[in-house]
Specification:
Elements (H helix, E strand, L loop, with lengths): L1 H9 L5 H20 L10 H9 L7 H20 L26 H8 L7 H16 L3 H5 L6 E2 L4 E5 L5 E5 L2 H13 L1 H4 L18 H14 L8 H14 L4 H8 L4 H22 L4
Antiparallel strand pairs: 1-2, 2-3
Helix pairs in contact: 1-2, 2-4, 6-8, 6-11, 11-13, 12-13
Length: about 290
């Protein structure tokens, strides 16, 4: 299993968070199959595979079941290529359909309330405002924001260079307001948070980089302060960025590049939100609705 996980990092360049997810899924499968009396992956047969897949039914979320089967499939495929896999067909996810959920996006009013919620009288509040402005203003993933280094910023030109999934780098222009808040944080708040030298943009009072879990916790607190009906996590801000760009007339291919999506199909889901808005306007306005 560790051989496979190492290959994910070295050969495919996946992030450590993805490797951790694979490891958790495969440990779950290994523990289950160990209880079935198997001593190794090569002993896995059709009966054990069917039993394992059956164990992934309700109340387990379908998205979790899909991910666990997909992780096991990737490992077995890896072993088969090296002549060490079981003599069975690879598991299929076709029997488990993941519901197609549209991304959640904030309205302009909700976004403004969220961005205005930090206490700007304290350095941490200025940091958190700059953090949210950057995630929204550049459509960053939470790990991209929390792990961003100072050298990646070019505030003179108003841009940031981000290393995303699989080590792929992309250049993103920044809105003027995002640049303004980043300047404010760097000039007035960052050194007051901690005097410890750090190469990272966003730091704690101890000078350590913000952990992704901390970012989720901060946004959950600010969502409550803003009176939002649901928590606006980092990915909601990223969704909002994409939706607002498309609603403003941005080209789908351009949005794909800005978000760092490998496939245009991943970005196309955002267009459904625009279609929903079109249908709403149609039903509100058409005389024979």
């Amino acid at each position: 299993m560790e051989w496979f996980l190492d290959s994910l990092s070295v050969e495919r360049g996946v992030s450590r968070h993805t490797v951790a997810a694979y490891r958790n899924d495969l440990r779950h499968a290994a523990n289950f199959l160990d209880q079935e009396g198997l001593r190794g992956w090569a002993e896995l047969g059709p009966l054990e595979m069917s039993t394992y897949q059956s164990s992934l039914g309700p109340p387990l979320a379908r998205s979790t079941a899909l991910r666990r089967i997909s992780s096991l499939r990737s490992l077995l495929k890896f072993l088969k290529r090296r002549g060490q896999g079981p003599a069975i067909d690879l598991p299929s996810t076709s029997g488990i359909r993941k519901p197609r959920l549209l991304p959640k996006a904030l309205s302009i009013v909700q976004l403004s309330r969220l961005l205005d919620s930090p206490d700007l009288a304290i350095p941490a509040g200025v940091r958190d405002r700059a953090l949210m402005e950057l995630i929204y203003g550049a459509g960053l993933r939470v790990s991209e924001a929390s792990e961003l280094r100072l050298e990646a910023l070019d505030l003179e030109s108003g841009s940031v260079t981000v290393t995303g999934k699989r080590g792929k780098t992309r250049w993103i222009p920044l809105p003027a307001q995002t640049v303004e808040w980043l300047w404010r944080y760097l000039e007035n708040a960052r050194s007051k948070l901690s005097s410890k030298p750090s190469a990272y943009l966003f730091v704690t009072v101890r000078g350590n980089p913000l952990r992704r879990e901390t970012v989720y916790s901060l946004l959950a607190r600010y969502s409550r302060l803003a009176g939002l009906p649901k928590t606006a996590g980092p990915h909601v801000l990223r969704h909002t960025y994409a939706v607002h760009l498309l609603q403003g007339g941005a080209d789908l291919r351009a949005v794909q590049e800005l978000l760092g999506h490998e496939s245009i199909a991943t970005t196309q889901v955002y267009t459904q939100l625009d279609l929903d808005e079109v249908m709403k306007k149609y039903h509100d306005a058409h005389p024979r609705r």
